[in-house]
Input
Amino acid sequence: MKRITVLVVACGIFINAGGALAADGPLLERGQQLFESVKLGTSGKSCTSCHQGGKNLKGAETSTEEQLADTINTCIAGPLKGKQLDPESADMKSMVLYLKSLAGSGK
Output
């Protein structure tokens, strides 16, 4: 009985750890939060200040992830007056995922 309990507890820990790791990956919801956040910079603006509802994202659907990351960082450093994101970070990958979803919706 003790072995079964230990096995069940160990499996529960493994499953929870896997869930925590998944949360560190790119998430559509995280991309949306960042897109709408004024905390990406110091100008008091967010990405939605210029791209409300995903407007003016022409070409995002055909851009590579690297191209989108460069464009996002250009906007963060420029109009938002912020610190660029690491292109390999979960936050950047989440923003790229979100932009692709907006572009794919025909906006």
Q: What stands out?
A: Confidence is low (pLDDT under 50) at residues 5-22.
